[in-house]
Design a protein that fits this description.
Pfam families: Bac_luciferase. This protein is of the alpha/beta class and 444 residues long. The strands form three sheets. It has an eight-stranded parallel barrel with strand order 1-2-3-4-9-10-11-13, surrounded by eight helices. It has a two-stranded antiparallel ribbon with strand order 5-6. The chain has a two-stranded antiparallel ribbon with strand order 7-8. It starts with 5 loop residues before the first strand and ends in an 18-residue tail after the last helix. The structure holds flavin mononucleotide.
Length: 444
């Protein structure tokens, strides 16, 4: 196989994916507000030739601010602006809601980041879906129909704005005094049911023309939006079968809009705690998640459908418990949890395997992570992976030093960036303005 896998890194509030990350003795507890630290973490990811950083945004609530930091960075665009100045190759993907932003504002911010980073920006266009997020804008969440109707219009309009400054319009000729060719910088005059703009945008093309489009979501609406516009889909799947069917749904939708299914790259999530061996990794996870263990025991009961008690944390499940256990049909992680339980780990260790986390979790050596990624990639369950490391301070290094070289040796991951721009590095075709193939597909 010549095709190489793609790898991105989830980049949240500066600490890591585990709620206890900020308290680890080797972590600076003010990382959340420290851009020097975030820049250093980004440089580590770039040292590993990772394709992009992915910044989620806009969850709206402070779940447990007394003990758990927020999950997203102070401001995704400012964080990426800081990172752009101190890196050269890594892609910069930020989330921006189509429901709670005016398209013109999104268009200018992302295009400015794209110009500033010399063509490395991507926009994760999501609709926001909770009243928690909506409350910060003084409203309740609009219906799905309205959110996705607006999203389709917003992306079209933003791409039209991006293309409104002609590719060769910027002359900047000091001798003649001609700054730009006015004939090539034209209004767009688009007014839809939900959004509109006159244009033109005042920002010239970047080295990759314009930012790529990303989408994150799994609903049928997400398939349609992603299928129509996305170059990259950030997914969430617990099994190879599930990932394959999600990937296929996006590919089918892309075809329905006249695109080539290979134009859309599906990324499966993966969480990592990488150390020299499984035992060391489990102990690290226990340290990181100590506070959550009682509530996770309670939840594991419902996944395995047997009573469990925190008194039993240090013991493996009994033969009777194992023979009575039945994976819950309501939670796709249950079969895996039972498999781990049957390997004879203690109740505490079962939980430390991350069986209740929100992506598959590797708790162990670099080889275990590489094997997982290879199996999914070769089964065509994903074009790539987005990695959530447990603690950024040393977890990004662990991934870069322990997993990346194995994937490279196996010929599964590139050894150098292919080019300068994000499009070149991800193998995404050139696009400037709206994709002509999708203009006539007015399903919305
Ligand atoms: C992997 C993944 C990442 C997501 N990241 C974000 C995010 O950063 N911000 C956000 O508001 N929603 C995010 N979402 C939520 C989705 O955009 C979407 O709103 C959600 O899946 C609900 O679907 P619906 O809006 O179609 O009902 C994410 C979803 C997935 C699966």
């Amino acid at each position: 196989m010549n095709k190489k896998m793609l790898i991105g890194l989830s980049f949240g509030a500066g600490y890591g994916s585990q709620p206890g990350a900020w308290r680890m003795p080797w972590v600076n507890p003010t990382s959340f507000a420290d851009f020097d630290i975030m820049v250093k973490q980004a440089q580590t990811a770039e040292r590993g030739k990772l394709h992009f950083l992915f910044l989620p945004d806009g969850f709206g609530t402070l779940v447990d601010i007394e003990s758990v930091p927020p999950m997203t960075s102070l401001d995704v665009m400012m964080t990426l602006a800081a990172v752009a100045r101190e890196t050269k190759h890594i892609g910069l993907l930020a989330t921006g809601s189509t429901t709670f932003n005016e398209p013109y504002n999104l268009a200018r911010q992302f295009k400015a980041l794209d110009v500033m980073s010399h063509g490395r920006a991507g926009w994760n266009a999501i609709t926001s879906s909770t009243n928690d997020a909506a409350a910060n804008y003084g409203v309740t969440i609009p219906s799905s129909e309205e959110r996705y109707g607006r999203a389709h219009e917003a992306i079209l309009l933003i791409q039209a704005l991006w293309g409104s400054w002609g590719r060769n319009a910027w002359i900047h000729d000091q001798a003649s005094g001609k700054f730009a060719n006015k004939d090539q910088i034209l209004p767009i005059n688009l007014q839809g049911k939900f959004v509109g703009a006159r244009g033109p945008l005042y920002i010239p093309p970047s080295e990759q023309g314009q930012p790529i489009i990303v989408h994150a979501g799994g609903s049928p609406n997400a398939h349609q939006l992603g299928g129509r516009f996305a170059d990259v889909v950030i997914g969430s799947a617990f099994t190879i079968e599930d990932a394959r069917s999600q990937r296929q749904a996006f590919r089918d939708a892309a075809e329905g809009y006249g695109r080539n299914p290979d134009d859309i790259k599906f990324f499966a999530g993966l969480m990592t705690t990488i150390t020299k061996d499984r035992r060391t990794a489990l102990d690290r996870r226990i340290l990181l998640t100590e506070k959550e263990i009682p509530q996770r025991v309670a939840y594991l009961q419902s996944m395995l459908r047997i009573p469990l008690s925190i008194e039993e944390l240090g013991r493996p499940l009994s033969e009777l418990q194992l023979s009575n256990a039945r994976p819950s049909p309501y939670d796709p992680r249950s079969a895996h949890a039972l498999k781990i339980a049957k390997e004879g780990w203690s109740l505490r260790d079962i939980i430390a395997h991350g069986v209740i986390d929100y992506h598959p979790v590797i708790v162990g050596s670099g080889i275990e992570a590489a094997d997982h990624m290879q199996a999914w990639f070769e089964a065509e369950a994903a074009d790539g992976f987005w990695i959530s490391t447990d603690v950024y301070a040393d977890g990004i290094d662990a991934f870069v030093d322990e997993v990346v070289p194995i994937l490279q040796e196996r010929g599964l991951f590139h050894k150098e960036y292919e080019g300068r721009t994000l499009r070149e590095n991800l193998g995404i075709q050139d696009q400037y303005g709206i994709d002509p193939r999708i203009v006539s597909t007015q399903k919305y």
